[in-house]
Amino acid sequence: MEHIDFSLVDWSRAQFALTALYHWIFVPLTLGLSFIIAMMETIYVKTGNEEWKKLTKFWMTLFGINFAIGVATGIILEFEFGTNWSNYSWFVGDIFGAPLAIEGIMAFFMESTFIAIMFFGWDKVSKKFHLAASWLTAVGANLSALWILVANGWMQNPVGMHFNPEKARNEMADFAEILFSPTAVNKFLHTISSGYVLAAIFVIGISSWFLLKQRSVLFAKRSIAVAAMFGLVFSLFNIMTGDSSAREIATTQPMKFAAMEGLYEGSTTSPLVAFGILKDSDNPNAPNEKEFSVAIEIPDLLSYMAYMKPGVFIPGIRDLVHGNEKEGIMSYFEKIKRGHVAIKALKDYKNALKARKTDKAEQLKKMFSDPEFLNNNFKYFGYGYYYSEDEDVLKDNAHLIIPPVPVTFYAFHTMVGLGMLFLIIFILFLYFSIKNKLENKKWLYITGIIAVPLVYLAQQSGWIVAELGRQPWTIQDVLPTIASVSQVDTSTVQITFWLFAVVFTALLIAELKIMFTQIKKGPKEGGN
Amino acid sequence: MSLLALQEYWWIIISLLGALLVFLLFVQGGQTLIYSLGKTEIEKTMLINSMGRKWEFTFTTLVVFGGGFFASFPLFYATSFGGAYWVWMIILFAFIVQAVSYEYRTKPNNFLGQKTYELFLWINGLIATVFLGTAVSTFFTGSYFYIDDMNRVLWMGQARGLEAVLNPMNIALGLAIFFLSRTLALLYFQNDIDDEAILKRSRRQLWGNAVPFLVLFLIWFGWLLFVKGFAYDPVSKEVFLEKGKYWHNLLDMPLNSIIFVGGLILILYGLFISMVKESTKGIWFTGTGTVLTVFALFILAGFNNTCFYPSAYDLQSSLTIENASSSHYTLTAMSYVSLMVPFVLAYIWYAWKSISSKKIDAEEMNGETHTY
Prior knowledge:
The complex is a heterodimer. Chain A is mostly helical. Chain A has 2 domains: 6-253 and 403-526; 267-314, no CATH class. Chain A has 17 helices and 6 strands. In chain A, a hairpin with a 3-residue loop joins β5 (473-475) and β6. In chain A, α1 packs across α16 (442-468), α3 (86-120) packs antiparallel against α4 (127-156) and α8 packs across α15. Chain B has one domain (3-225, 327-367). Chain B has helices at residues 3-24, 26-31, 34-37, 41-52, 55-72, 74-83, 85-104, 114-141, 168-192, 196-226, 245-252, 254-275, 282-302, 328-338, 341-355, 362-367, and strands spanning 145-147, 153-155, 228-232, 239-243. A two-stranded antiparallel sheet of chain B has the order 1-2. In chain B, 56% of the residues are buried. The chains are: A mainly alpha, B mainly alpha. Chains A and B meet through α2, α3, β2, α11 and α17 of A and α5, α6, α7, β2 and α14 of B.
């Protein structure tokens, strides 16, 4: 392993995580609320009832406040790939840059053009054109999610590419394979539906507050009717896609899956931990491991959940690091050695070129198209960065390839638990809404209001599972963070980290204050 | 298409995006004029709303410019963004604060106060133009970086890109873009706002911005013609310094030179009819002229065996459209995507026409359902 400045890697990660998590406060609401608004406006256009227009405009105001800050945090993410992850940008830019550019061309212009009509076009274009603009804004927002999630899905499960030793980078080989990779499809569907759930809870929560205050009762009831129906459908869809995402992770990112489940020791009869508290392991031979101090388990269920059939071996963290011959699992130690061979072959190739040893260079170059080499060595390229001549150091390094288990475990369980809770909340609201019994249900209103911070917590948890759970990989098995980072002084990144933290926090406070004020004003006055 | 043809095609697209971006910086220029053009609250509101309906285009174009560069020339993305870290970070901060300012400025209980958001707009206007202009100038003057055989970047500039200010020519272009953006903003306001006082003030201010722009730009361009440029041998790919490289590029690419001169003439004509004939249509000519001129400058930087992002530290590390580009496959795939661009431009045009057919006036500001 070359000399690595871990503090630089950590601060660069912290900065990216900070930006992503802030961005992810605002985006899910945009994704879902845009559709809810379009649906409300459709009712207005169909019925001609001005009350529905007022309703549409109220939610649009909140949408606009949220949208602005989403845009502000979004631009940073795009450029941070370059500023803080420049080696990454070169190493996989040939593949990763494309969806980012398509996102801009296809989605951002659509979003920004039609959102202008949404806000400024009420008295200038026809009702139908305005309605179309509202729908197109929603489509644009969701298209942008599609492309960035295709890019993210590719990072989690890199497909459709080959390595070009001459350029020392990966290159795109099959665009369709990248776009339609099951990881990308699952990620997109699960993420956008989570945004729809968030938006529905947002609308229900705020409407519940109006009902609690006994203000704008009809407005609140109507909003709840639309949101609860929308939320219920996509909550079910979200649970389904969550399930298929987890199953997919079990095969493509087994370490992440083990961390999500807090599973150290693999077996064919692992239980599903519904609830658990982790503590440091008492085992003196495993100083870095955790174990459950409290756990509510459902016996034997994990194999079924992961593979839809019982008795399949689910590897634990220990199996993945140390290997499990019986189950045919290669150890991280072996993967590191194999990856090192690939990295060394690339270096030898470059040195041969420099020394003008053409024959040797040609020979080494050919290795990178030899299926055996690709399968035995190149597949583990990223692991090679953890190589050391010293066997003990190498073994220590292998433990750096384990994500933070407790955070991943808790975040995953928080997300899943809350996801189930939201389903119940939607059922309750829809039931009482259909029965027209929403009035005088203080307990229900309070549940709806409390659900709002919880849905944001669920969103953040989901993002933490996806991103922290795959550490240390920027590209699964191909490139770790230590080899992706830009060579900037750590102190420089620290300064920009704190600047971002201060600016984002100040803007978040501003956003919340403005949002609360507009909500308090209510639909009558707030409909601008 | 051959790889070189695709690389050229993509450099043309990047040049076009860059040119559109510089033109759309009129929003930024306008943000620095809020107080000098708007003396009353309603005048300020008209100015801000006039820009407020366009700012997202500048913003989105910047994002697409970045994304397009990433997809087509990823080595530039890795080199410039990871290297000139401070330059890009400062530009980004200026855009974060802009994005919320229009929407939050007059909203009640907005935490930072109306003046702060107006200050944010002013900061964005100043920094985005000066810094982007300075950054573009380094396409001609060079930066200090080294690229190793694995194509990893080591930035040698002590101030992570800010060292570009040590070259007065970079500053000259930065300031030229600043004054250009203000000039374009004045012309845009004349065309977009129906208000006598604003019109009068904007005409008066035109001289103070158009003249410095022209002087600074001509100094920069005059210097460019005689300076040693970064050329490379088309066969061996070896980079070397060539006296009068950009002058040679003008001679070698006559069509591009016609575009450049045509652009300059349009800029001058737009200014002439605005300043002398008091026309309000100047923006159409000066705006189009800006797009053409900047487009031609980008072509000058990247075509005819020229390094578009030169390294003054290590000549052989310089980026060219050949060594910095994506693969043949990716460029081809992206070229299909680029066919959507005319369609995108068409719907933007149609959508805007449908809501901007009438000029902004005080009456609309008081009656409009959504104002900033």
